[in-house]
Amino acid sequence: MPGLWTHQGDLLRTYTGVIKPIATTGSAGVGQVVNHLDDPDLALELPTGTGKTLPGLVIADWVRCRRSGRVAYACPTRQLARQVAKVAAREGIPIVTLTGKHANWSTADKATYEGAEAIAVTTYSTIFNSNPKLAVPDLLLFDDAHAGEQYVGEQYAISIRRNDVEPLYTAVLDILAPAIDGIPLQRLRDPAPDPGMYRSARLVVPLRQPDMVTQLDALMSQLPAPWSFRYSMIRDVIATCLVYVSHSTILIRPVIPPAANNPVFATARQRIYLSATLGSGGELERAFGRAPITRIALPETTPTPGPDGGSSSCRNWPPTPTRPRSPPRSSRRPARRWFSHPTPPPRSPPPPRWPSPAGRCSPSIRWPRAWSRSPPHRTGSAAWPGWPAGSSRAPTGTFGYFHVDGWVLADISPPCRPLRSLTEIRTYDSHCA
User: What is the pLDDT of residues 189-208, one digit of tens each?
Assistant: First the structure.
């Protein structure tokens, strides 16, 4: 198949069988074929962006052709099921889509699947329900198995919402009351939610309370649909269920879903779980209620996604030499914005502005009282004698000075500049004396 990558091909060869050498006397060069064709539960791990769908479809079509058996490919949601159908159509793999209510399934598509002429692409909810209508497959594949705990667990859970059925909520809360403290119980019973209890939940273990399991079973067995369908799936394990109580909802669910009672899931010859992360702490076994599950290690040729998490399509990874990749975001130069400029130093306060005799405000200098005796108190034109010839700093224009409260103020009209240094003031004083 031209669409396969090297690491995907290595994964398929590991599944169908590889020759493993054995070290026994007189058997040099002889090996045995190790495969996973008959493992009842098998997990394949491929990181996000490296392509899980195509190897799963290839395995499904290979088993369908080789064993002439029915194969079902389950996805968490209908949207993902449609995406898988598009990939299969692109690669020329025959599939039929069986999602939603079984009454709406096409009779031709259903017959095609049951005759092992095509792969059935369906959803988790089609398999995990109280009365599944899907014919038992020979091979059952689960895409995105790392999300199985959410999608499988909600099929084996009973949710009682206070806004929908308040009498039922109150009846269940009365049974759980011995396991809840006084003040939290009172807050749960209040019609208006308390701010401290609205978003919090209490965990109740019915098995630790006397007669609580019996009372719960007596109440839940009388519930109408749709709760009766869900309760029929967990009634045998009601003693091992946990109850989560909040002001808005009561949730009853088992720690491990009893998937062994599901005919489609338990009767299949082999179950394959495709996941981006499998883990080693028993998460997959707890999500699907199966143990043990054989895991196939990642092929050595599996690419490592880039710093940005890789691409959603394995066609774009890894980058080719003719397609340069942009540097990681951490090494890019940040964009310059108006708030990233350095703050300018604070400016010095402007000099005081004193009123001139003409009534305008111009830069002025306060002249000490002692200097007012030397220059005559007059206003007029000054030739500024004594300044260096050709000096660009020699002031020109009209110069005036006058008294204000015993102080002599020097006022210079434009275009002259003000006398801003004692040297200039003393120079003028010496020439005017």
Answer: 998 887 777 778 899 999 99
